[in-house]
Specification:
By secondary structure, the chain is an all-alpha fold. It is built from four helices and no strands. The protein starts with a helix and ends in an 11-residue tail after the last helix.
């Protein structure tokens, strides 16, 4: 459910940004924030701890990848871009879970 939520919010947020004639980099930022905050809202409503707050989970990287896929395919067709972005996020999330991939821990500044 997490992966579908992140992918869906990534596609919707990015499309709204593109509808308002935001530049592609702005659309990427809006889509990234929409997908991450959408995932947090769903987790909180379900009474769970948001996965973005857990150490080592590469949710931001997965969301960013889905948003970039959407921005690249949006000029071709919005529906295709949505399906491709959601599918990318779901496949990457399944790979992360299955292979145990994680992001490095944040080190404090010296």
């Amino acid at each position: 459910l997490d992966a579908l939520t992140i992918g869906l919010y990534a596609a919707v947020g990015t499309q709204y940004a593109l509808d308002f004639d935001v530049s592609w980099i702005g659309a990427i930022v809006v889509g990234l924030f929409a997908s991450l905050t959408g995932g947090v809202v769903v987790a909180v409503l379900r009474g769970e701890r948001p996965a973005i707050l857990m150490r080592g989970e590469p949710y931001a990287v997965i969301a960013l990848t889905g948003v970039i896929v959407y921005v690249l395919l949006a000029p071709v067709d919005g529906s295709v871009a949505s399906i491709a972005a959601i599918a990318t996020v779901v496949v990457l999330r399944l790979l992360v879970v299955r292979r145990g991939w994680s992001t490095p821990a944040i080190r404090p500044l010296p």
